[in-house]
Design goal:
With about 300 residues, the protein is α+β, with helices and mostly antiparallel strands. Helices cover about 25% and strands about 25% of the residues. The strands form four sheets. The chain has a seven-stranded antiparallel beta sheet, with no helix packed on it. A five-stranded mixed beta sheet has the order 3-2-1-10-11. β12 and β13 form a beta hairpin. The protein is globular, with a radius of gyration of 21 Å.
Amino acid sequence: MIELSLSEEKFNINGVALSFPIEIEFLSKLLSVTKRTKKGKNNTIYTWDDLGILAYSKNGKVAESLLLELKKEDFDFSPKQIFKGKFYFDNEELISYYKNNKDKRIKLFDGDSSGALVLNNISVWFDSIDNNIVAIEIATFKGSTIKEIPRDKYLIKELNEETIEFSDFGFKLSIIQELMYNKELLQPKFDLFEFVIGYTKREIDLEKEGYEPIPEVTNYFKKLPIPKKLASEVTEIYQDGGNDIYMQLLRFAEGWEDYWDIEKTEDTKHFPNLKKVVLCYAKKNVFEEFNNKGIKAEWL
């Protein structure tokens, strides 16, 4: 049986001390069972079916986080078995800790359905339903960053330069993915958790609202100005259900949503260097429209 533990001294798996990010090759040897791999352009998910464990990696070489599934899910990357091992937090089994020590929880969201336990800059995030933990995520804790978010970080500011007027929201989101997350030219890089924690106009409960687009988040991206000077940097668009932009827009995105479909290609006029698009969120008509404009289109 696999055993994970986080204490004041260390985080370990089966007694082996680890720190994030964890090399995938080393993790595979440590877990010692066959894994599956699901690759996207911007991240890779590794699944150990027999252990009920997932690992998330941006570069395919190291894991930034681990997910233990305690409830069977039906996504194509979901483990075929739930996690049946043991997880100890501060030398106490996590399930017992959660049920008996709720006053010790560090809650980043109000309500009873989510929280985080933190030791040594590693956080144990968990989702619960009726006091039954359904998933546990272990990752490097970013709480210090969250606490230092400037109040105006996600305040939309008018730019003193030419900006692009978009006619299609889905197209704009694909451009934001390229400029904000792939090339890191558009700042600030949007982080859903930061946005929710810093939002003051109302309380946003991600665990309850994360199954549908959150209006305030969608509105942020609709209003976000894109400097015209960045247009020449875009040479391709690559849509993937695991793209950062979609995961920020919908906490529990599954990849089949059509909220962000590109419906028309009029906005290509702003991007003279755009030569290729790979599509998964797009209406059928736009595929031909891209090709007619000399932009090579492919379905993912």
